[in-house]
Amino acid sequence: MTDGTTRETASGRVGPPSGTILAPGYTFTTITDKLASIALSRRTPKAWFFGAAVGFVLTMTLLAAITWLLFRGIGIWGVNQPVGWGFEIVNFVWWIGIGHAGTLISAILLLLRQPWRNSINRFAEAMTIFAVACAAIYPTFHTGRPWLDYWLIPYPNTMGMWPNFRSPLIWDVFAVSTYATVSLLFWFVGMIPDLATLRDRAQKMWAKVVYGMLAMGWRGSARHWQRYETASLLLAGLATPLVVSVHTVVSFDFAAGIVPGWHATIFPPYFVAGAIYAGFAMVLTLAIPLRKMYSLGDFITAKHLDNMAKILLATGLIVGYGYVVEAFMAFYSGNPFERYMIWNRIGGPYRHMYWALLFCNLLTPQLLWFRRARRSTATLFVVAMIVNVGMWLERYVIVVVSLSRDFVPSSWGLYRATIFDWATFIGSIGLFLALMFLFLRLLPMISIFEMRQILPEAKVAEEEA
Amino acid sequence: MSAPRLYGLMAEFENPSDLVAATRQARAAGYVHLDAYTPYPLEALAEALDIHDRRLPALVLGGGILGGLFGYALCYWTSVIAYPLNIGGKPFHSAPAFIVPTFEMTILFAAFAAVLGMLGLNGLPMPYHPVFNTPRFAMASRDRFFLCIEARDPKFDHDETWAFLTKLGPRVVMDVEE
Amino acid sequence: MGDRLELLRGREYWRSLEELGGAEDLEHLDREFQVPIDSGVNRRELLTLMGASIALAGLTGCTRQPTERIYPYVKPPEEVVPGEPLYYATAQVHGGYARGIVAESYEGRPIKIEGNALHPASLGGTDVFAQGFLLNLYDPDRSQTLTERGEIRPWSAFLASMRLALEKERPSRGAGLRFLTTSVSSPTLAAQMASILQAFPEARWVAWEPAGRDNVYEGARLAFGEAAEPCYAFDRADVILSLEADFLGVGPAQPRAVRDFASRRRGENSNRLYVVESTPSLTGARADHRRPLTPVEIEALARAVAAAVGAVPARAAADPFADAVAKDLLAHRGSGLVVAGESQPPIVHALAHVINQSLGNVGTTVAYIDPVLAGPPNQSAALAELASDMRAGRVSTLAILGGNPVFTAPADLRFAEAMEKVPLRLHLSLYDDETSRLCHWQIPEAHGLEAWSDARAFDGTATILQPLILPLYGGKSGHEFLAAFSDQPEKTGHDLVHEHWKGRLPGGDFEAAWRRALHDGVVLGTAFPPKTVAPRSLPPAAPARESAETLTALFRPDPTVWDGAYANNGWLQELPKPLTKLTWDNAALISPSTSERLGVSTEDVVELFLEGRKVTAPVWVMPGQADGCVTLHFGYGRTRGGRIANGKGFDAYALRSGAGLWSRAGLETRKTGSHYPLVTTQHQNRMEGRGLVRAVTAEQYRSDPGIVQRMGEHPPGPADTLYPKLPTGSYAWGLSIDLSACVGCNACVVACQSENNSPVVGKHEVSRGRAMPWIRIDRYYSGELENPDTLFQPVTCMHCENAPCETVCPVAATVHSAEGLNQMVYNRCVGTRYCSNNCPYKVRRFNFFLYADFKSDLWKMVRNPEVTVRSRGVMEKCTYCVQRINRARITAERENRPIRDGEIVTACQQACPARAIVFGNLDDPGSLVAKARAEKRQYGLLAELGTRPRTTYLASISNPNPALRAAATPERGA
What we know:
The complex is a heterotrimer.
Chain A (H helix, E strand, L loop, with lengths): L1 H9 L17 H12 L6 H27 L14 H12 L1 H12 L9 H21 L26 H34 L3 H11 L6 H34 L11 H27 L8 H32 L2 H12 L3 H13 L7 H5 L1 H28 L14 H24 L5 H6 L12
Chain B lengths: L5 E8 L2 H13 L5 E4 L5 H6 L6 H28 L12 H27 L23 E6 L7 H9 L5 E6 L1
Helix pairs in contact in B: 3-4
Chain C lengths: L1 H6 L2 H11 L5 H5 L12 H18 L25 E9 L2 E10 L2 E7 L12 H10 L9 E2 L2 E2 L2 H15 L7 E5 L5 H13 L4 E4 L6 H11 L4 E4 L6 E5 L10 H9 L9 E6 L4 H4 L3 E4 L2 H14 L11 H12 L4 E5 L5 H14 L6 E4 L9 H13 L5 E5 L3 H4 L6 H5 L4 E6 L4 H4 L3 E4 L8 E4 L5 E4 L12 H6 L9 H9 L8 H11 L30 E7 L12 H5 L7 E2 L4 E3 L1 H7 L5 E7 L2 E9 L7 E6 L28 E13 L3 E2 L14 E3 H6 L29 E6 L8 H9 L7 H5 L8 E7 L6 E7 L8 H5 L5 E3 L5 E3 L9 H4 L7 E2 L10 H5 L13 E2 L5 H13 L12 H5 L5 E5 L6 H7 L3 E2 L11 E4 L1 E3 L16
Parallel strand pairs in C: 6-7, 6-14, 9-10, 9-12, 10-11, 14-15, 15-16, 19-24, 21-23, 27-38, 28-37
Antiparallel strand pairs in C: 1-2, 2-3, 4-5, 4-16, 8-13, 17-18, 19-25, 20-26, 21-24, 22-23, 22-25, 28-35, 29-30, 31-32, 33-34, 36-37
């Protein structure tokens, strides 16, 4: 049976007949063995080494850039007067946005009882955690004196000083750290049963020991399962408002400011939608190569891609609506600064950014109205990539373009990123890849026990005996 | 060398339905100290063993309330009592601004309550448990379903229980040593 | 990178990390007084450094008080308390004329220059040079050792060799002896010179000032047959016509002129200013009617006006502008004034004089006195003669007192080459400069704050200059240098000055009078009396020298580095030029239409040819520039001016000939196709229709005082708030800036930098938008590009009552004081820069690197000990000079009384010659600032945002001539 499926996938037909979320013919045994083997026994594919190497090299770039930053000061970046925030905040928001799909897929889809999530939630959650980790780099190092960042945390000190709880940056500290912690808990708790599986399936001693420790002695007792289910549901219930709150708070960084182009009430919903948009784009960006790399077409099926494409389209439309409202309000408000802000985006020195952004985030996703586009992994991958770029541009337009021309024309000035800005940006992508590839290699990237649940044989046949 | 003490008897089943059925019968037969082990959550089992533990939600609720109070108290005390500062002409007690930390603290505390509560009530982490002494139990995390009647059950008698389990049509029945 | 590292050793290694790091900001590394990376320490520099450190060893021990008794301005020396500043009145000599200053000194270290209210040229105000003057004192690039042909010698050795030299000169009665000074008004020096010329009748004294007053004196000679110094009373003038006279920007009495002029621009009974000029100036920027004209046209217009008022027989063709001006002048007989600028040929000055004469302005708005400058007349002619003498070998000894003739002399004299022919060349100068290189003896000159001397102001009033500190490098004053040529060479500067004034001071008791003179900073009754002059008939107009196809070169001193004397001054180099806002460079200014004609634009590099000489310069398209005129500011392009000066800008002297000192027709240009990055601090020159600078005409304001309020959105009133009132203190500090009075002269900017220890960041950092001033002067244009209206607006921190910056700081590093100060707590700042983003005025400045120089000891000495030196990674901004507020508070509390109005004077307010800035307590209805707030033309910048700024503005009021309404200024402001 196992050989059967592998032969099939090997023979090139990726994925089962459309509409199903799992290829037929799998049993508890085969599904467990196949998924567990990815982490345990099966030889690592070439692509893994390549990807991991790239990730590692870029991570080194990141470290170099940050070392130099600490040595010289943030002047090595392009930030200036009036543009006090540049790439760093752009990247921060971008990464945080990406970090939204994971928890969303796990939590909201769990509450909505969407079984198709089972095959993608695990690595989506991992993606969330790594993205948040990358995001965290930026606010940490973008301060003038990073070694004093701990002053943002409320702790009793001899100066009797406390943070200013009116500052959106403090809200960020609370929101992002909470989000990171809860996501991590959610992810880990979700993995416990699978860690037990790995523990029991592992051949090597060290693997047994490590997985054993992580599994914490999980034995699948009915009583445990009952509490476990309750806990997951409660966590999901908590995580859902949290996801919504995090990007809302991030949007406050801007909405609570007075800069034209920042100070807009549409920001919270439009940022949250943008985050989900970016998040799903990134999930697709990862899922499509992965199912090829590990021939997981049986688990991440066309149905999955189709669903995610639809969500992408829906959120894309919300984001587009956001853009329209932003422009409309600028004119409707009659506020000269707001109006100029829009003109500046459309025709100012950064107009290319704005038009590129509209192309990426507004035009491109319209492809997804067509079933054929949603079914073609290639198209889907390209669209997702373009959306990733688009969402980065959106944050660039909001942060940099708004700051470069605010209230007093005498102080207007342009922002030009330096090589160190780029190194830090590319480097963080490297860090993300490195973490992702380590995760793929060492942990079950698809939730095994939840996959078992969607097997036909998992149903309890009622009334005999 | 003395024979190790017995923890209980364990029956291995091929599929969930058999296990559920077996569990029902075991309960019907009057066994109380028994537990089932499955590779994924089975709701049917919960009612078969009629497990109703309502403590966890209570814990989470408590955690949430505590977190909320802590969050707001932190903001209020630092900004109004400990070190009031004129910041942008805003009132010392800037309630709207305090909502965000309050909310985040609520979630954080509740989440910890949920996770630690679940682990705690389950008695995890648990480095050692007798059921692992049976080599076949490794299958519990793969594709097999186990029912275990513990020795401490008043109705437990090795041979009788063994007989009872065998007639439930398991793949095997085995001793579980402490 | 690895092998590069291997090449480097020791501390060099650390230096070079910058290079390894991709040279992110080598420029800012080079800034200030740090040794450039590539310079190895040779013997000379080593000795220099040793000298400096020895000097410092003494300095830091506070043992540098002059040995002679000097007298503090406010407190007698008995009260000297460590940490308590003392104030001494002295003067800064600029272009030969004295401007009264008061130097603030801590433990014998002068750290701040302020205006002397008792001095006629200052009246309490200063210009940028007086402020920058202080920095030159501590400049480690100053000439530090007395050398003969590069060998270090003691002063005694110099005196000895002078004795020998003079013996050689005696037989010829000094026929080969020449003295070359800058413009001199010092009575003592003049007397010394006189006695020397008595001993050596054949010797000559030549004076050369690159931006000299020849035209003024020659103009007077042309008009009256005798040299005379015109003194103007701008406060008495109702109608002023400036023939390219930039009296608000430069000139011997600039601070006084600004004060007098501004006193008549406060809205009611405003004066009216007409300006015709070839290149935009501060005076032109404040004009009610300005006309860009070429030099020839200016002369024509002067004649037209003269004819129209009947001062000269009518010959010129009628010109509506000239007629309108003439009518206005005629309507204000006795209260009109025509002023010609130094850059104008004598004939234009003569015309101005005769017009004033015929209108009866003499005695009311203009008075004539004997020339204040003691030096010989017609400097350029004298210098030319000197050059030819030297070339002919008629000069055996050339003694140069100050100045840098090799760099500044007209190019056609080929002065350096001529100098080589002189057997003995001596140079007394502050810097070991281009001239020193060609001299046998280099004598370090004592800085103006290190030496005893004296000098006269524009009206003849004498000031005795007292030293605040012993010469850092054993420098000698001009008096001591000249003494070497007298029979008592060992005389000290103090004795020379002291003796000169014996018997010359008013009052019986000389010592008392001496004390009083030092205390006041002026010698009473030394102003020259007005003299009566009789006009003569003027020569007819010379034929025009301009042709359409060639251009006219205009030579002007640079607005910030002057004639090059301040080229090594970081403050002034980084100070944006008032109109172009350029820093660290000069450029060839051309008008927009000329730039189209030549097909060049800003930053294009062009070759300029004039009389066979050539320079290469970047172009700057200058709105309001006269077509066909190319303005070249001299003072840049130094090759031996110090580490800051060298290699900055281009040398305009290379094109400047004796015949065309100020303007010369026949300039040709050629495009090179290359570009040169020019760095400006303001990229956007228009207000985008935002009511930032509000300007109205006098009659608009008279007929409808509410107009100013309507030029912007309506701001929320005091009651329009939901917030509870927070506890307030006993004072409510506020600042008011009168845009009608402000002339945009930049004095406040340098004063603030000096008072608040603001760093200099260098051209590269400025180009990246990281300049660090706490007060900036925004300059906006309105109207057509060819002749726009220019509006200035000094912008400080507004100290908003609802400060957007404070709310967003996560660590509460910027908070509000009970007295309304928006306080920046450096120690608490982690540097998120959120506050800066959220500041609508963009007045916050961030230390992106370690800008403050913590290494060089000399730089430490210039710092104000009451102001924190900011480190890397923290935000900073205007504090309303909180250190001055607290000093006043301490005094007041000690005397158990409230702080009086006017007791606190912020640095910008103190320096402002126009008295445009007023600081005080808004809660006290009697205070000046509260009164200013009550004015109808008061408005808050962007107040509609609800920030409730504490800094507010008074709208600018112009007074155009209704007769010229057709060509009137277009609607300003909104």
